[in-house]
Amino acid sequence: MTDEPPDRPTAFAIAAAGYAVTAPDYLGLGQSEDLHPYNHLPSTVSASLDALRASREVLRAQRIGLEREVMVTGHSQGAAATLAVGRALPAAHGDDEVPMANAQHCRNVIREHGGRAEVVDVGDVDHQTSARLALPEVIAQFDEQRR
Predict the structure, then answer these.
(1) How confident is the model at residue 2 (pLDDT cuts 50, 70, 90)?
(2) For 110, phi and psi rounded to 5 degrees?
(3) How many whole angstroms separate alpha carbon 145 and alpha carbon 111?
(4) SS3 for 5?
(5) How far apart are CA 80 and CA 78, in angstroms?
(6) DSSP letter, residue 97
(7) Who wins on pLDDT, 128 or 100?
(8) Helices (DSSP H) in 28-147: which residue ranges?
(9) Among 79, 89, 100, 133, which has the minimal tally of Cβ within 10 Å of its Cβ?
């Protein structure tokens, strides 16, 4: 996760809606001096699951309980990461730079694996604005799945 929009504001908005948030950094970004293996899904999944496990351990040590259900969301490179992490989870039920057809394909793959997913089309806006505009709908979908 970076300080650049929409990363940190998205994580804060989801947390403010009452969700525990783990926002892992991609290998090679953030404080790292290593190269970033762009869209290398095995390293992305590994970093994401490690962050999830670490977060659960910290909360367990503080005697803070969490629901077992994990919901993931991603934008741009994070969309592919979301699909890969969803497949890797043991209990997985599941913008103008990323064509709508790709988003619809991803939704269909999630549904084929028993997950629930909707495509949020916010219209013809720039890359960062699409994430910001879609966020309320993403949180609403999380709320719906929680019920």
Answers:
(1) low
(2) -60, -45
(3) 14
(4) coil
(5) 5
(6) S
(7) 128
(8) 41-61, 77-88, 100-112, 127-146
(9) 100
**Calpha distance 75→128 (Å, rounded):** 9
Distances (CA, A) of 125 to 8, 80, 97, 134: 20, 20, 10, 11
Is residue 23 a contact partner of residue 85, using CB atoms and an 8 Å limit?
no
Kindly tell me if the per-residue pLDDT of 84 is higher than 80.
yes
pTM above 0.85, yes or no: no
**Cα torsion 35, 38, 40, 45: sign:** positive
- What is the Cα–Cα distance from 88 to 91, expressed in whole angstroms? 9
Which pLDDT score is estimated for 5?
Answer: 60
| Amino acid (one-letter) located at 10 | T
Distance of CA 37 to the CA centre of its chain: 18
Nearest alpha carbon to residue 78 among 10, 146, 3, 143: 10
Domains present along the chain, CATH in parentheses: 7-146 (3.40.50.1820)
| Amino acid at site 71 | M
Contact call for residues 128 and 3 (beta carbons, < 8 A): no
Q: What percent of the chain has pLDDT over 90?
A: 5
Element (H, E) at 104: helix 100-112
Length of the chain: 147
Q: Encoding tokens for residue 39?
A: 């869209």
